[in-house]
Inverse folding.
């Protein structure tokens, strides 16, 4: 049969044959209608609640504290009050710092993984993925055990006679940054590694043969070629950092106030659901922006790949 | 040996491996220290650890909220994974080879809950589900966790099914199999590694979920992370270490079982 000779990638392959056999397009044994239950579930329990949340944040009746003056009262409060504005800025700056550190720390690891790891390749991938088997609570708890006043690091430093009095690591934003980088940096490494894997090594060799130093080759050839991976990793980590809440709740001793934390407090303590709704919508919009950016990068890469 | 000499001649080459080593110390240390602490005999967190015991593991059984919430978490993880797979697998199969223009858009839509801040989802779902009459219940938790599990299952099944040529199904159909037989004996076995890998992800994500679960907390519906959160806010003792270690071992066990039975490693590779 002619169809069997042609390569499998050809989309027109055996279309008539499949129709005769009742197999649907491209040989899928499953009709497109099977997507409906999932789409219906998502419409009812994902889209509708988020729309409902937007509606509630705009509603006049929902406020508990005083009489709201306009439909946008919650948003006016959020963007007009210097305190909330500062929280908004803190959230973005904190996420940017975490993402930048993840990038700077993750790139060399991705480079080592793809180019130099050799027989340690599987071990390194395992070490990157293994933390996923532990809960975030376990990891934040681990940081507290390491850095508490009577924790591991302080006891070592005191035994070595480097310090006399335990250092207070746990208050201040440093430990929160470390904790979040710890959770998110594997995503960055994997994103960069996958784009490093796609680089044609001959480009780098050509540059070196033509006299470029290793540094120059890296900054002029390798780094620009992995910009897609950097972009994907950057947006992914930034997005996750923006929405992260467990790490910040348990580390940093309340030294940083971010939007997710404030939503939590509005919900559990202040109980201003109107404002919490508005905050979650601001967070949602930033997530949607990240999602759109991510899709654009993926699409670009897809086109290039063909 | 010659490699070692090369390294000594060019010390700059040691920088990268040294950095990678430190990086993994950073990754592993907070986890290893918790496992170590779980075996401490002390009543508080402190170093050096003078004696070791298993008493904090007994505490999991003694302290009712730990055990109850662990059971809720396991039930919830398994139930939500099954529901997510039941509606996610058919959707992924239908979309994987569809050439309809909207198929890519629909796939993105089904994957998008991963990208949304979970605290926003939890907050929105609480009010929405309360209005629907579910309120704070296991059903409400199940719906929220299913929502988070669907993307993981859709993603892996999409990936595995797209990597398989249609030849197998065509061959079966040519040899006289009807649609149901093709699906049952060809398509399903082909994507089974994807289903189990995605299911494992969904299971682990559900076990670790806090931002959605805590909105639906009540004595009957508290999951392990919710109980651990309130416990850590008030106490700082090694029982958290013991519970976390057990939870990690359960996750590891799930990984090993799925890997042994269905070969997670081989997922995506055409058999």
């Amino acid at each position: 049969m002619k169809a069997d000779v042609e390569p499998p990638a050809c989309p027109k392959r055996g279309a008539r044959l499949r129709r005769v056999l009742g197999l649907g397009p491209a040989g899928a044994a499953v009709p497109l209608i099977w997507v409906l239950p999932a789409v219906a579930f998502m419409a009812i329990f994902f889209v509708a609640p988020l729309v409902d949340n937007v509606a509630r944040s705009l509603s006049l009746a929902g406020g508990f504290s005083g009489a709201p003056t306009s439909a946008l009262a919650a948003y006016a409060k959020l963007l007009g009050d210097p305190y909330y504005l500062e929280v908004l800025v803190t959230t973005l700056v904190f996420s940017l710092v975490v993402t930048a550190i993840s990038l700077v720390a993750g790139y060399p690891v991705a480079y080592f993984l793809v180019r130099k790891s050799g027989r340690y390749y599987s071990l390194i991938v395992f070490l990157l993925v293994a933390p996923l088997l532990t809960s975030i609570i376990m990891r934040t708890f681990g940081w507290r055990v390491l850095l508490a006043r009577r924790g591991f690091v302080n006891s070592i430093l005191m035994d070595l006679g480097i310090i006399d009095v335990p250092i207070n690591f746990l208050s201040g934003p440093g430990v929160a940054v470390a904790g979040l980088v710890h959770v998110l940096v594997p995503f960055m490494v994997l994103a960069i590694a996958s784009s490093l894997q796609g680089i044609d090594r001959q480009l780098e060799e050509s540059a070196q043969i033509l006299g470029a130093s290793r540094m120059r080759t890296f900054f002029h050839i390798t780094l620009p070629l992995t910009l897609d991976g950097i972009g994907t990793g950057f947006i992914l980590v930034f997005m996750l950092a923006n929405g992260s809440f467990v790490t910040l709740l348990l580390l940093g001793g309340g030294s940083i106030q971010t939007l997710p934390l404030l939503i939590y407090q509005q919900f559990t303590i202040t109980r201003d659901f109107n404002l919490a709704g508005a905050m979650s919508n601001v967070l949602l919009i930033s997530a949607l922006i990240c999602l759109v950016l991510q899709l654009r990068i993926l699409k670009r890469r897809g086109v290039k790949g063909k | 040996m010659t490699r070692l000499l090369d390294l000594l001649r060019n010390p700059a080459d040691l920088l990268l491996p040294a950095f990678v080593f430190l990086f993994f110390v950073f990754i592993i240390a907070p986890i290893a220290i918790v496992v170590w602490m779980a075996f401490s005999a002390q009543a508080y967190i402190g170093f050096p650890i003078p004696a070791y015991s298993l008493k904090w593991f007994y505490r999991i059984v003694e302290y009712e909220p730990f055990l109850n919430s662990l059971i809720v978490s396991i039930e919830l993880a398994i139930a939500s994974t099954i529901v997510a797979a039941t509606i996610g697998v058919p959707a992924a199969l239908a979309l994987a080879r569809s050439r309809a223009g909207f198929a890519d858009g629909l796939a993105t839509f089904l994957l998008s809950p991963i990208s949304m801040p979970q605290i926003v989802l939890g907050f929105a779902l609480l009010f929405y589900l309360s209005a629907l009459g579910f309120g704070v219940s296991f059903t409400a938790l199940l719906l929220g966790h299913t929502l988070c599990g669907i993307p993981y299952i859709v993603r892996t099944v999409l990936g595995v099914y797209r990597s398989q040529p249609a030849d197998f199904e065509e061959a079966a159909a040519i040899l006289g199999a009807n649609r149901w037989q093709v699906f049952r004996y060809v398509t399903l076995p082909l994507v089974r590694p994807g289903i189990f890998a995605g299911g494992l992800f969904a299971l682990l994500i559900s076990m670790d979920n806090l931002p959605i679960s805590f909105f639906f907390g009540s004595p009957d519906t508290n999951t392990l992370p919710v109980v651990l959160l309130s416990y850590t806010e008030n106490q700082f003792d090694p029982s958290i270490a013991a519970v976390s270690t057990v939870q990690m071992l359960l996750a590891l066990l799930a990984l090993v079982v799925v890997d042994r039975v269905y070969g997670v490693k081989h997922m995506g590779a055409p058999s």
Notes: Residues 82-116 of chain A form the longest helix (35 residues). Residues 1-13, 61-68 of chain A have pLDDT under 50 and may be disordered. Chain A has 15 helices and no strands.
